[in-house]
Specification:
291 residues, alpha+beta, Ribosomal Protein S5, domain 2, 7-stranded mixed beta sheet, 4-stranded antiparallel beta sheet, 11 strands, globular
Length: 291
């Protein structure tokens, strides 16, 4: 099996640990083969990603699924990483989701998308905000206890992602999150999170972009980890529908006004000259590729 597994953007400002968006690019290509050896072997084309099955998200997912379904075969998993690790674009989630999707296809397990999210979540230590959009595509809302995923698919807008040339560890980004929030900020985020969902049903992407920028809880602290983030945001805000930090950063998600794309790109080059600029759109989730 050869699987296309896309990058994702979690949180989307006001939807911390709940909202996720699938992006068409960049993506990983994951190949999965059944082998006679009763073990799981992982090959990755990037040297700084572990191939130990207990440390690689793909390996953790594969081990769990083979055990749960009493599959005696071994697996050879080859991962071609198109998503930079530590970029805030769901790199580890793409590996986990792609393998869950591929094993389901390879062994005809007929699992639901929700089951695939649940298995992919083992690799993400119980976080589902990236694996859910990677599996479902489009925009996802995750609830827990019990786990549920609500999906909005018919979405169409352009996206620019800037990936500054720094790495932020998710653990580091979580440590600085406030342990308590005041009622006013909670109400603000709840109101704009609700409005964001409404905006997608109405296909009001201008309103969606506004909601992206209304986080009063997470972005004010995580933005400090990204050099010049707040100055950059102020500089381009009139040229875009919305801007926010992607996941735990440092990637920055931008919804450009169509006529202002080039202006935005010039500003990106000014602030992040050695960063990577990605022009993409909303994606459809994991797909089976022809060999």
């Amino acid at each position: 099996m050869k699987i296309y597994s896309p990058c994702t953007s979690a949180n989307l400002g006001v939807g911390f640990d709940v909202f996720g968006l699938c992006l068409k690019e960049p993506y990983d290509i994951i190949e999965i083969k059944e082998i006679e050896d009763n073990e799981i072997k992982i090959e990755v084309d990037i040297s700084d990603i572990p191939t130990d099955i207990n440390k690689n998200t793909a390996g953790i997912v594969a081990k769990k699924m083979l055990s749960d379904f009493n599959i005696d075969s071994g697996l050879y998993i080859k991962i071609k990483k198109g998503i930079k690790g530590g970029s805030g674009l769901g790199s580890s989630a793409a590996s986990a989701a792609g393998v869950a999707y591929g094993i389901n296809k390879l062994f005809n397990l007929n699992l639901s998308k929700l089951d695939l999210v649940r298995y992919a979540g083992y690799g993400e230590v119980g976080h589902y905000d990236n694996v859910a959009p990677a599996i479902y595509g489009g925009f996802t809302i995750v609830t827990q206890n019990p786990l549920s995923v609500y999906n909005i698919k018919d979405i169409n807008f352009d996206i620019i992602v800037v990936v500054p040339n720094i790495k932020i560890e998710t653990e580091e980004a979580r440590k600085i999150i406030p342990k308590e929030v005041n009622l006013k900020d909670m109400i603000n985020n709840l109101s704009y999170a609700s409005t964001m969902v409404y905006s997608l049903f109405k296909k009001d992407y201008k309103l969606f972009g506004k909601c992206l920028m209304m986080d009063n809880i997470i972005e004010p602290v995580r933005g400090k980890l990204i050099p010049n983030y707040f100055k950059f945001k102020e500089k381009i805000k009139d040229n875009c529908l919305g801007i926010t930090i992607s996941g735990s950063g440092p990637s920055i998600l931008i919804l450009p006004k169509p006529e202002k794309e080039e202006d935005i790109i010039e500003t990106i080059k000014e602030f992040y000259p050695d960063g990577n600029i990605i022009k993409t759109c909303v994606g459809e989730g994991c797909q089976l590729l022809k060999s």
